[in-house]
Structures are given as C-alpha cells and as structure tokens.
DNA sequence: CTGAAAGCGCTTACAG
DNA sequence: CTGAAAGCGCTTACAG
C-alpha cells in the first residue's frame, strides 16, 4: 500500500518529461503535439495512473477537501444535509470531511484550525455558533457557505429558507382554521433561524388581531430538540390556558411536545394541532399526526456546492432561499 | 489564506535547522539539547506553528485521514455510528472523511479508489457490499474495520453484535410470553447481519417446538428499510394467519410494519407485539409501542478507533462483539 | 547534539 | 512543442 503510481512512472513509460505529463493530465492538450498526447494518454491508461491529490494539494496550497462543520449529526435534518452535500461534492470531484461540533464553540474552533491545516478549499458551516475561530475565518475571506443559520459573527453566503415567511405561513394556517389559542415552542438558546421563525409567526398573528399576551410562548432547554420540546411541553400544558394550536420550530421539538401531550391525555390532532418546521420524511412514518413545513434538505447539497463553485470562480453569492412546501 | 507557517519559519526564528525543529515537533526531545528544545518551543509558540498534515502525508506516504464508507447516512443507526466514530477519531488526532455509497457497489469502488489516492491511513466500512475494489482492498492488507456487516468478500476485523444471539433472544421473549404465531420481517437483499438475526430467531423457535411452517417469514423490497417493512407488512397482515408477534431486524422496518398494521386497524401492542433490533433513542419518542434490542451504536466509534489503533500497531484484532440491551 | 541533502508527487514559470 | 529546475512542507538517513 505504499507504492503509488506517479507522474514519473507515466513519463518514463511515454518517454517524455513529467512536465508534459502533468500538463496533459490537467487538460492542457493544446500545448503538446497530438502524437505526444496520444502516447501519454496510452501510458496513463496502461499503468492506471491517477493524480495524487496530496502532492497536488501541497503544491497548490489547497486540497480538494471541503470541510463540513455541522452542529449535530444526530439530528436527521443535518444528517440529510450532510448526505446530500457529500453526494454533490463527490459529483463535482471534491471530498467531504465531516466534523461534528455538538454545538460547542471550542470544538468548532478546533475543527476550524484543523481544517485550515488540511488546506481545505472550502467550508460548509451548518448551524454555526459564534467563536473566535469563526470570526477569523470570516475575516480571512476563505470560501464559506453558511447553512440553516446565518453567519453569527458577520455575514456571508447563506443557504436556507425564508424562516420569517415560514413562521408567518403557520400563523395564517392556524388563523384560517379558526384556532383561538396559538402557542409557539422554541429552544432557549435559539439560532437566527429559530428566532426568525418565531418572530414571523408572532408578527403575522398580531397582524391578524392577536394581542401578544394571547399567544403562548414557551422556550425549552435540553441537549436535543426532543428534550427542548418535552420540557417546554410541561409548561405549555400546565398553564391556565391550553393551546389549541402549536408551532414547533423543528420536527424534533414537535416529537417532544407530542410526548408530553400524550402523557397529559390530550388528543393530537383534535384537542390541539401541532405544526413543525422541518418536514423530515420520517414524519410520515412515525408522526402522522404532525403537519409540517417541508424544508427541502435533500436539495441543499446541490445548492451549497453550486454556491461554493460560484465563490471559487470569484463570482458573488449572497444567499439562496429555497422554497418550502406546506400542505 | 495561502500563507502557512512552516518549519522553516520556526527554524529561522529559533536559529536552528528545520531538521531540528522537525524532530522536536515530533517529540524526539532527547536528541536536542535542553536549551535548543526550549528555544524551539518558544519559537513555535511565538509564531503559532502547527504541523502541516499535507506535507507530512506526502513525505510519509500516509495521511491522518480515515475513510468512513457507509451504506446510507439517512439511516439514523449509521448516522450515530458516523457521529461517534468521528468523535473518537478526532480525540485520537485523526480526521474523518465521509463517503455515502447508497449501497451501490460502483460508488463504493469509486470511493475506495479516491480514498486510496488520498493516502488515508485506515478504512471503516459500515455495511459494505461486495465489489471489485473491496476485494482489492481486502487483499492489500490496508488497515480496515468492518462494522455491522462482516467483510462480504473475505474476512477482517469486525465491530458489531452477536446477531444470532440477538435473534434468539427475541425468540425466547416471544415464547416466554406465550405467543403462538411469530413472524419475522427482513430485507430481501439482506446482509450477513440480517441473515444471522433471522436464522438465530428461527433456530431458537425450532428449538422451542415450532415447526418451520408455523413461523411467518416475510422479506420486503424497497430503497429504505421503512419501505421494506411497509411492503412486507402487506403480506404479513394479508395472509390466513395474522401474527401475534413480529421480529423486525431493524427499527425502520418496524416503523414500516407498524404503519401497515395501523392501516389495517390492528392494535400494537395488543393484537400483536413488535420487537426490533437497533433500539435507536428516537424510539422512545416516536415509537413507544416498539420494544427493541438496543445496539450500543454510540460506543461503536470508540471500539472502531481502538481496533484501528491495534492494527496500526501491528497487533491483531479479530472481532469485537458488543453487548446489547434487551428489556 | 545538529545540519545539509534528498525526496515524497505535483505544478509552473522559464528557457529553449 | 518540450524539458530542466525550483519549490510546496515535511521527514529521515547520513555525516559530522
């Protein structure tokens, strides 16, 4: 496993210099005579040569590695983003390195530095948290795409949905259905995405005549959104008013809320409608009671890679808000 | 982003040669005078030097990258394996590259070749499928750990559970409960793991007095185990005998079977008990009706990395069967 | 105890 | 149209 077929092998076989082989490997066909090109191509074929990305990376000061730094792979939404990004990168000839920060800034920084050392050619930050390293990355101008959560320490290319509009759509849905006691559940330490979903929801309800105090708001704590929902559920179903409609800013929060609702003997749907924002395919199988705004995570990968390619070409890429499906 | 602090920078600052700095960076402290060591350490600190893994990889013929080649990241069990492996590798100073083969042999091969070119120092194959490239890898003796499914084209280090025993445990459980019409649901194109679970289940039932025809066996097709279960469910609940107990070889199959059961108006549990082998944490939240053999996926990562480290040290590592929890 | 030198596989001005 | 040479950052015999 320690023998690699190098340019030199091919060059020797074709009777030319490594420079010539290198150029041809890199597609500069016109700079060599057709006869030479043919001979080199034959030699490549014959010995089964494949360019060594490590040598190339060292020389170019940049590898074909793209770092995906995600907050939590156990979250199915992030797993789907990772999976679709991986597929899109492979198709474009890149290799994805996966880093799971568990939402911890120190780990995020550790990875950011390690990836820089690996000379990665790009960064995909899914639900990034503020950190020193992120600020440095931001300032360095390295090719970076933020996903789901916007850059928490500046701005930069973003792939996601219009979170405000999504929240508002749920508000309209509840209002049109004639619901009177709406609630919203979100994580205590929310991202820009959570916040926008909540504020879009609240703004639209106000617009449609609700007073702020008529809307139940519950944040929850926990290391997973399941816990967040379960914890917030305790307060939501324990107050004087029981909501007849609940927006959960993620599927997993809805699962947690639902479990609490079941424990309290509530019928869902029926006593109370729950809508979440995520719409993971799993819902249809294990949570038919749940209505969702469907975020097209499976196409995130393609958009992220398209964004990176624009940036590599020096073109600008501000943000890409993908359409979601509801109902 | 194109400036990297190199050994040369440190050497210049410390007034020594790069060789000396290199040795010290690599922990060969005793080969330099204490004064030199101190000076070099200071310089490293002062300029914030970090070894460049690319240069190192090229020289050593081996990177610090470990390839994780998994069949399907959308499966929560694999996502958990990926996540725990990633954490364990990071702790050990390695970086994980993630490849999702979607269970396709050509893609698996593409990745295997690409990873070889990246000079990865190890392979983690989760649910590998037979392929040309896998045979080559197998023959090459490269450090490899197979996870969940054993090497389908030979043998090699394995991390998983005793699938046969797990299947048998479920058979005992059903028998002790007094169930009369057991069934088992598995994917048509099964892995060694599926097969072992099924055969362990069947063998134990036979031992306890069932005849083969008294056990309902249903395989299912589909691109996901959810589909597999749903499809097999149609046949299971459509026959002359309705089972009173079902073993599903994975959680997702159980979700699919359950959905079909609900459509047929069956009560679960009650009319029929379902037990699955996986025991993903999500079950407690979205499938309280499901009893499971719990596979400790969260500790797979540590075992996998421990296995790789044994192999790297030249020690042998046959297989590691982890204990599962049931009930 | 320390350094000069070669080389890992590659790319890229530069000279011819 | 082609090649010799330098260099990306590192490690490692080898010589002193």
Order of helices and strands of chain A: HHHHEHEHEHEEHEHEHEHEHEHEE
Kindly state the number of beta strands of chain A.
Answer: 12
Strands ordered across the widest β-sheet of chain A: 2-1-3-4-5-11
* The CATH top-level class label of the largest domain in chain A: Alpha Beta
Q: Describe the main β-sheet of chain A briefly.
A: 6 strands, parallel
* Shape descriptor of chain A: elongated
Number of helices of chain A: 13
Question: What is the CATH architecture descriptor of the largest domain in chain A?
Answer: 3-Layer(aba) Sandwich
Gyration radius of chain A (Cα, Å) is 25 Å
Q: What distance lies between the first and last C-alpha atoms of chain A, to the nearest angstrom?
A: 54 Å
Largest interface: A-B, 51 and 52 residues
Task: Report the oligomer.
Answer: homodimer
Domain HTH cro/C1-type (chains A, B): 5-50
Protein name (chains A, B): LacI family transcriptional regulator
GO molecular function (chains A, B): DNA-binding transcription factor activity; transcription cis-regulatory region binding
Domain HTH lacI-type (chains A, B): 5-60
Summarize the structure.
The structure is a homodimer of 327-residue chains. The first copy, chain A, has 327 residues and is α/β, with parallel strands linked by helices.
What's the arrangement of secondary structure elements?
The structure is a homodimer of 327-residue chains.
Chain A: H1 7-14, H2 18-25, H3 34-47, H4 53-60, E1 65-70, H5 76-91, E2 95-100, H6 105-117, E3 122-126, H7 132-140, E4 144-147, E5 158-160, H8 163-176, E6 182-187, H9 192-207, E7 216-220, H10 225-236, E8 245-248, H11 251-263, E9 273-278, H12 282-286, E10 291-294, H13 297-312, E11 319-321, E12 325-326
Helix pairs in contact in A: 1-2, 1-3, 5-13, 6-7, 8-9, 10-11
Chain A binds a DNA duplex (16 and 16 nucleotides) through residues 4, 6-8, 16-20, 22-23, 25-26, 31-33, 36, 51-61.
């Amino acid at each position: 496993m320690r023998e690699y077929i190098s340019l030199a092998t091919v060059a020797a076989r074709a009777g030319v210099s490594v420079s010539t082989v290198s150029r041809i490997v890199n597609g500069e066909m016109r700079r060599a005579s057709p006869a030479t090109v043919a001979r080199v191509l034959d030699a490549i074929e014959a010995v089964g040569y494949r360019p060594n990305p490590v040598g190339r990376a060292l020389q170019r000061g940049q590898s074909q590695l793209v770092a995906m730094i995600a907050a939590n792979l156990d979250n199915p939404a992030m797993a789907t983003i990772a999976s679709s990004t991986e597929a899109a990168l492979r198709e474009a000839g890149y290799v994805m390195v996966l880093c799971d920060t568990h939402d911890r800034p120190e780990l995020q920084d550790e990875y950011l530095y390690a990836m820089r050392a690996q000379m990665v050619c790009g960064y995909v930050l899914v639900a990034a948290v503020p950190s020193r390293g992120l600020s440095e990355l931001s300032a360095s101008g390295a090719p970076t795409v933020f996903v789901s959560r916007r850059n928490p320490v500046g701005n930069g290319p973003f792939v996601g949905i219009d979170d405000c509009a999504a929240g508002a759509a749920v508000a309209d849905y509840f209002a049109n259905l004639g619901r009177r006691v709406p609630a919203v559940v979100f994580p205590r330490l929310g991202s820009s995405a959570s916040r926008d979903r909540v504020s879009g929801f609240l703004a639209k309800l106000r617009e449609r005549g609700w007073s702020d105090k008529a809307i139940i708001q519950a944040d929850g704590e926990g290391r997973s959104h399941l816990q967040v929902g379960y914890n917030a559920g305790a307060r939501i179903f324990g107050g004087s008013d029981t909501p007849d409609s609940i927006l959960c800013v993620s599927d997993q929060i809805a699962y947690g809320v639902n479990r609490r609702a079941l424990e309290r003997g509530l019928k869902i749907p029926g006593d109370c409608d729950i809508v979440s924002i995520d719409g993971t395919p799993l819902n249809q199988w294990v949570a038919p009671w749940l209505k969702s705004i469907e975020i097209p995570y499976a196409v995130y990968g393609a958009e992220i890679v398209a964004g990176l390619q624009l940036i590599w070409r020096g073109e600008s890429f501000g943000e890409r808000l993908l359409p979601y499906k509801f109902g």
